[in-house]
Amino acid sequence: MPRWIVLLGCLGLPASATAADPRLLVHYMPWYATRDVSGSWGWHWTMNHFDPERRTADGRREIASHEYPLIGPYDSGDERVLECHVLLMKLAGIDGVVIDWYGTGDANDYPAIHRNVQRLLPWLHRAGLSFAICYEDQSLRGLPPDLDAEQSARDLKWVERHCFATPHGLRHEGRPVLFVFGPQHPHWTVTLESRPVVLGLPHLYRERGLDGCFAWPPVDGGRVVAREAWTAFLDAVYADDRTLVATAFPGFNDIYSQAGVHESYGSIDDDDGRTFSTSLARALASGKPFVQIATWNDFGEGTMIEPTRARGYRSLEALPRCGPPAHLRLPVLLYDLRERGGDAPRLDEAAARLFADDCAAAADILAGVQRDLAADEVDDGPDRPTGGAPAAP
């Protein structure tokens, strides 16, 4: 019996014996920048308020988040980060990634986000993970009339050429899938020969003539959203037969008010992990072909399942096809050893073993590199602060 059906029974939720096993996706933000990699700290770590150059007594940088990444604040263009993230997803049993994308324009940090998406795709291919684009059509706002249509056409042609045409692109009933976070632009349309299945938000997709919708954490108006409210919202969305994507989330705790960006959207308590387990179980029981976790790494809104200092690997370990906990810790150890200057050829071999699902061999290699580094660091002086990576099992 699949583990997710056991999970439903433990939570007292119905499970259909004939329900198809949905594809498990995770929403990914490729927008982080650090001084060491990109030359400056990007807006998503600072929000023009926090200063990551400041450190607390325990060595943490000041960032725009209530939570702190286990590997520390990172750059989304750093190949070591992408390797670590994708391996964590693979070992946690995630099937695919929905990549948040602002198009090919040159405003704000859109060029960096576009570059980071292109760097991420080969790692997803290597891991055998499927992917889809979530187009943030709000990037078209502020463009003059006609130029917004031209920009949208360029953006969608890029998606068609580089995402729909690849065998790793997410498909539904033979057609490529495109997510739109909205649509928010009043004149946005899709005219592509590939005829993608276009999915928008529940309250917008019908009036804009899209094929269907995907659920999202229901926060609005700065209110605390109780469990009864968000479960009722999701039940109503799942009752729509054009909802193709159910959602799971660990909670919602944005930092916009503290950063002075704008008022908070609201909050959903993580309830010591129960919000995630409950929303995941309901999503799996919904009968929808896809379940999207919102999100992998939106630290500004507090919806990440990426391992953090406070929560560790709790969310990943709750996934229905997650591997052994000891294996799940290996990508973070690999990242930490690369950061500390470990033997690159041996670390490359360990990574190859992880991509090949040979975790035992990878663990042995990583343990050897860790021992060698520890000996070198004793000879060279005090250890530097690390991202909190565990010892090899």
Description:
The protein is an alpha/beta fold. The chain has 14 helices and 12 strands. The protein has helices at 3-10, 35-38, 43-46, 79-91, 110-127, 147-164, 227-238, 256-259, 274-285, 314-317, 325-328, 330-339, 344-355, 359-380, and strands at residues 23-28, 96-101, 130-135, 171-172, 175-180, 197-200, 212-214, 223-224, 243-248, 252-253, 266-268, 290-293. Helix 5 (110-127) links the parallel strand 2 (96-101) and strand 3 (130-135). Helix 12 (330-339) packs parallel to helix 14 (359-380). It starts with a helix and ends in a 13-residue tail after the last helix.
Write the layout of secondary structure elements.
Blueprint: H1 3-10, E1 23-28, H2 35-38, H3 43-46, H4 79-91, E2 96-101, H5 110-127, E3 130-135, H6 147-164, E4 171-172, E5 175-180, E6 197-200, E7 212-214, E8 223-224, H7 227-238, E9 243-248, E10 252-253, H8 256-259, E11 266-268, H9 274-285, E12 290-293, H10 314-317, H11 325-328, H12 330-339, H13 344-355, H14 359-380
Parallel strand pairs: 1-2, 1-12, 2-3, 3-5, 5-6, 6-7, 7-9, 8-11, 9-12
Antiparallel strand pairs: 4-5, 10-11
Helix pairs in contact: 1-9, 4-5, 4-12, 12-13, 12-14, 13-14
